[in-house]
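Lab meeting prep.
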Amino acid sequence: MLIIFYCVILSLLSSVRCVKVFTQKPAILTEQKGRSVTMDCNIEKDERNSVSWYKQIPNAAPQYVLRYYHSNSDPYYGDGFSSSRFTSKAPSNIDYQLIISNVDVTDSAVYYCKTYDDTAKELRRFLFG
């Protein structure tokens, strides 16, 4: 796993904020139309909180897919995403999964998971194949 640290100075009066960016291998995950795909996110530290999932297509802002609380079995969904196709689970306190059922070409995107402390992880580019 490649870990890159970026530090951004927001202004002279604010403090420096560092964000960890992770990339998992393989970078591209391909699946056939109508099948299911599972993407894994390891948050590395047991926060016992939640993970949010985002979908980003080229030249567009990220879309909020869902938030999954480790202690709650029902995700909270963003606009346009529903439990009929998108769900999440946590096999452990640090491992979370986004599961997309009945995949379609419109699901092709980069998917991110994010913990409450603003740690974001680029998971995989999902391509319809």
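Slide two material, second protein:
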Amino acid sequence: MVTDVWDQVFLTVAPTTTIAELKRHALSEASKRRSVPVADYVVKFKGGQVLDESTTLAALGAVANSPFIVLPARRQPVR
């Protein structure tokens, strides 16, 4: 789930994929742009933020169809 566009994106990735790669693929797929500022987003897994984005999916214990949430690092102001 990428919250900026509230879009659910399904990706086929290997267990050796890093969180940084997963985030980059999810953002480009959801926004349909190649130049998304990935540093402005964080990834959450099982309710907690993944702090080390060099961690692989296997190291996190993610299995097939595990949900991840990609959301802005800073909260958006309410207008």
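Talking points for slide two:
The mean pLDDT is 89.
The longest helix spans residues 19-31.
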